[in-house]
Amino acid sequence: KAGVTQTPRYLIKTRGQQVTLSCSPISGHRSVSWYQQTPGQGLQFLFEYFSETQRNKGNFPGRFSGRQFSNSRSEMNVSTLELGDSALYLCASSDLKTGDANVLTFGAGSRLTVL
Amino acid sequence: GDSVTQMEGPVTLSEEAFLTINCTYTATGYPSLFWYVQYPGEGLQLLLKATKADDKGSNKGFEATYRKETTSFHLEKGSVQVSDSAVYFCALSDPGGDYKLSFGAGTTVTVRA
Questions:
Q1: pLDDT-based confidence at A103, cuts 50/70/90?
Q2: Does A90 contact chain B (CB < 8 Å)?
Q3: Chain A partners of B106 at a C-beta cutoff of 8 Å?
Q4: What are A33-87's pLDDT values in tens digits?
Q5: pLDDT digits (tens, 9 = 90+) for B9-25
Q6: B72-88 pLDDT, tens per residue?
Q7: Minimum CA–CA partner of A102 in chain B
């Protein structure tokens, strides 16, 4: 069974640009979450999607957005990039059927560097 | 809001030593508790979990017991190996349905041969 796949794994952008990150969840998982990991702030929740609906959003500015497609794949977008957006962005999926709704399986992450 | 506090690292141990990483939490309800591990260059992997008071989660020689009276979920391993070198995160989720995990700051563990 394939795991959570995130693309790209590494990318470099400059301030003011925008970026789109992609996440393919484990087959059959319908919940997808995104987290930002930085040395200073640790792991912070960005948003969670289920059946193409955003059910919760963390405390991030509107420059951070996301969406989920009908096949459960998800994308997140960051517009007008700032130096502080440099981070590892982690996607996680969850299988709500088993009752382990809170058990997240994480991808390897997309490491974004903003210059 | 919900929060997790875990002991700061880094922690450096010799092989076969005993490992404890303290974790305490603040939550309004009865959260589920987790330990995740992150190896260099990788995402997070679930190590163990507990969903109610007095539950003991265990995996790969690691154990943690959900202590409601002390709001704690300390991670222990009796004999660590070099391969246990990683960053360990304590986390909680609110069963009330906010669909997110709240993580501690992470503890870096290095095991020397």
A1: confident
A2: yes
A3: 42-43
A4: 999 999 989 999 999 999 999 999 999 999 999 999 999 999 999 999 999 999 9
A5: 899 999 999 999 999 99
A6: 999 999 999 999 999 99
A7: B93
pLDDT at B61 over 80: yes
> CA-to-CA distance for B32 and A29, rounded, in angstroms?
20
Instruction: Tell me the average pLDDT across B50-71.
Output: 95
Which of B88, B99, B103, B107 to probe the A interface (max A CBs under 10 A)? B99
Single-letter amino acid code for the residue at A56: N
Chain B within 8 Å of A105 (Cβ-Cβ)? yes
On whether any CB of chain B is under 8 Å from the CB of A55, the answer is: yes
Does residue B43 belong to the interface with chain A, where contact is any CB pair within 8 Å? yes
Concatenated DSSP letters of chain B: --EEEE----EEEETT--EEE-EEEE-SS--EEEEEEE-TTS-EEEEEEE-STT-EEEETTEEEE-BTTTTB--EEESS--GGG-EEEEEEEE-TTT---EEE---EEEEEE-
Query: How far A23 CA lies from chain B's nearest CA (Å)?
Result: 13
Residues of A in contact with B43 (CB under 8 A): 4, 90, 92, 106-109
